[in-house]
User: Fold these one by one.
Assistant:
Number 1:
Amino acid sequence: MPLARLENFLKNLNGNILYVDPNELDATDSIENRGNSRLRPFKTIQRALIEAARFAYVPGTNNDLFDQTTILISPGTHYIDNRPGFYLDESNVIKDVNGSTRIISEFNVSTNFDINDPANQLYIYNSHNGGVIVPKGTSLVAQDLRKTKIRPKYVPNPVDANIAASSIFNVTGACYIFGFTIFDGDPIGKVYTDYSVNTTVPNFSHHKLTAFEYADDANTLVKGGTDTTHTDLENYYYKLSLGFGSQSSRSVIDGFDNLADEEKIEIFEEALRILREVE
């Protein structure tokens, strides 16, 4: 069988199965890779989760696919950059955990998906308190319970009251988790412990970090005593709508459907204003 036909045979066109294997020679998290071929898997679970959300998207309101994707995780050590992600404030301005105004750039071939780089673009899609969001109906399935290891890259400082408790995964409805073991931060590496890019060896208590929590779509976020009027899941899907723009060749045009048109316009105008200031 010619190699091209073999690759098509091993590729799942509908995104029902995505593959993660950082040890595969051709593994890449690049935006042009959809991770639906065994011959070209993703490097990270986080990149696969973002792709799972994209595969589930259908233009229109309240009609996205459900129970769409299974992510198959190969044996090995997989790192999760579970730092707090960005959120929208009450004025629909994108901010980070420190309250600084930020911009979410569209995915393109130059997007930084290197999970070992503090400036990677994966963690900004996390929950506002930290934790990677697992999209609705997504399954995380590993092939070997003992040999498939998950390690967090963010462990909240256990003695700093200003650092909130966090999680590794924030699951949504009908998620399924099977076949891997969650470990502490890498003892021969370093982890983030606060809201900076400083790292330290994780030889301390992990009691402020849980393995799983639920992503919240019932309660709006309160930041600095002010209600942002947006829930955690609303933030997540809106951020994805910005990431999957025209440069990704897989644009999500509806993002944040619960906002009125004028509010959407305000968001993008604010983003443009900030971009001009940066330039």
Note: Helices lie at 3-9, 45-56, 232-243, 261-278.
Number 2:
Amino acid sequence: MRIGGLNSFSLSDFPGRVAAVVFTQGCNFRCPYCHNGSLIPMNPSTFEMISQEEIFMFLEKRRTQLSGVVVSGGEPTLQPDLSEFFRLVGSMGYKIKLDTNGSHPEVLAELLMQGLVDFIAMDIKAPFTIYDRITGVCAPKERLEKSIELIARSGIDHEFRTTVVGPLLSERDLDIIKEMVPHGSRHRFQEFRPENALDPELRVSAEMKGLN
């Protein structure tokens, strides 16, 4: 596992649980509004990784304070040893939540089949007609659709979420996103944080809006 960061204590990232958040290094999307830009490169030249040993030592010490571990990113499903990492974390008694962009449904299927994940949160970033523009890449839309269906039918706790970026998503876009959410699944819109956006223009746009 390539681990680029750790939040040692969170009350908001894992519903109903006090959790630590492990941030994996590397992402296959380039969303202009991303606030974790340092986690995008798979092999950053000037970035110090956190070893798995450090993570497990930390989790061992915090067993009485924490009940959950969130694995976020970056995009965790790019990590070839994700299942083994989940298995080891789960063996310590922690519940596990995965944050994902949904681009690797085969990884989700493996985690679900093996019972290694307790909660999945997947981003639905935009209507599929503009997904490439919102993600900055040629998005694998069929794979995203498969992940949405897989998660919705999984039987485990899950939610779909969308970051509301005013300059990029219209009210009509938001309505379409609501229609993309399977019946019975939870969805929430989350606030855009412009101060660390990958695209500097989005930071400037937010600053100018605040001055008006």
Note: The two ends are 45 Å apart (CA to CA).
Number 3:
Amino acid sequence: MKKITAAITGIQGYVPDKILTNKDLEKMVDTTDEWIVSRTGIKQRHILENRPTSDMGVEAVNRLLAKKGISPEEIDLVICATVTPDHPFPATANIISDKTGMTNAWSFDLNAACSGFIYGVVTGAQFIETGKYKKVIVIGVDKMSSIIDYEDRTTCIIFGDGGGAILLEPNEEGYGVLDSILHSDGSGKQHLHQPAGGSALPASAETVAQKLHFVYQEGKSVFKAAVKNMADVSVQIMKNNNLSAENIDWLVPHQANLRIIDATAERMGLSKEKVMINIHKYGNTTAGTLPLCLWDFESQLKKGDNIVLSAFGGGFTWGAIYLKWAYNS
């Protein structure tokens, strides 16, 4: 019996219509378009207004199912990676499943910040590899505008809203997820977290007044950790699988900062032509960046392409996946 691997057989992204440009931000905080672009690579980001995170997941899933010609009842499992759930409970994955008619699937949320999609893919792949399930949907989506202080120029320039969904199915031809490395380090909490809203500091009039429900980030510390760990884990997965810069077709890096992306690619010895970059269009959509990259570049992917996905996020969390692309677009 041939080994079963979990292959990505479909991808669909979604971003809301409203665009917030750097010029718009110049009117809101003390910043400039040139400053933002030179330090992050971001030119604009999409913003979801008056709707919850689940609505973006629903859009991505419905379009993915239509694209694949699959009924929602065929889905066995739904994993939603997000740090901006509709509610503390129930899980946003449950809500998306209900709204899309995926009534035969069990579903849950996964919180690993910007590494959430990678964690979700690895988790979903296990259920395919065991033979337990045939169709697993992994969603990475975040409405970061809901936890960003638009008077804080250190964070409001970075984040946007959006995400995407993939379909994982069994493969016996050697395509799909072939290896992964995942890490976490809770001591990184002090550098990047949302102070209030959980059991450690429940919501109150005081926490709202003190703006403790917004993202807190120490930029320099996070940048330093991201550069090191994203590059390290990407190089390690290359070594573990005897991959060279020549036989890697694509790096799919988390879109947090163009300088972090460039540093990771340089450590891997990759030319810019092999790196998926769309941070200029969407900013950092947290768990949404990797599926949005795959969606944007889907038409350029070929069956058998060697692809490395790499991410770093709050927590700290980080990791990399090596996969072979399973289809021609």
Note: The mean pLDDT is 98.
Number 4:
Amino acid sequence: MQPVLDDRPISLAEYEEIARGCLQKVAYDYFAGASWDGVTLKQNRDSYEQIAIRPRMLVDVTNRDKSLELFGCKLSAPIVIAPMAFQAMAHPDGEIVMAQAAKDAGTVMTTSTLSNYSIEQIAEGSGSELWFQLYVYKDRALTRSLVQRAEAAGCKALVVTVDSPLLGRRENDVRNRFQLPSNLRLGNLVGSSIDKLPAGFADSSLAAYIASLYDPALTWKDLAWFRALTDLPVLVKGILRADDARLAIEHGASGIVVSNHGGRQLDTAIATIRALPEIVEAVNGRCKILIDGGIRRGTDIFKALALGADAVMVGRPLMWGLSVSGRSGAAHVLEILSAELDLTMALSGCPTLDSITDDLVRL
């Protein structure tokens, strides 16, 4: 009997190519876009390609283990789904399907404040373990309510994004006058006056929304307020400097996400993999470290782990998988990355995650 051929894409790059043809231009430009000239977006990717692996030989790699536990979640590989807004622009069931894919792949999804489905709908519809990403509103009662709802829905961690006092100028969205389709809402805010993006702006409506509602006065002292609101581990997302990493720990952070928002905020900001070593040194094992931005191959995950990250977050490639074939597409993207990491470990003489050490890479 002839084996059944698998005609699915075989790389993340192929998924993006197909997704571009599946999505409306406004949606593709939103998901793929970056701020200003896209320098940071490009450097996130290029920096991984410039790091060389120095593999070990004659190590028994017959059995390999990529699993770990992170904030009470058992993961099949050190890959977490990054927070991404407006997933129903890629698939009608949006975040619910993405969370189902996370469960299929044995990982956790970080659901966004700006999801099209509410945290309750996502938790109930997927049965998956979730983290909740929080944007801080000027309305602190609303912010408190979001935290309490995330905890009540069973989320395992709170991820506070700190790099968005205003929205980076994403010129494709400005050109497109980005607006959510009329049938979509901000699921976590349904029933309030801010469950849709404002209309009538000759610019990105998301930029107008953030400028009017997010709290640009957020400071480190506010992190203690979050800690008092919840017993959940609090991760601070958007750290690119050693001194900020130390401050995060001093103010109660359980984890740090080294992130430049995928190149969507401050253009020419340092590539995350370049920022990672000084942050690892500053943290010195006192909290967990994740990293996102530019991860497109299992070798990239390997390099991030070698330089001290505990796990990675992946965003855009999951959106391409979601738009191409929904739950199975997103799960397959995770499967590709996990398989590539497994092969990289085997070819580098690393049977476990603990054996991936910094002497295996050269910057």
Note: The first strand starts at residue 52 and ends at 53.
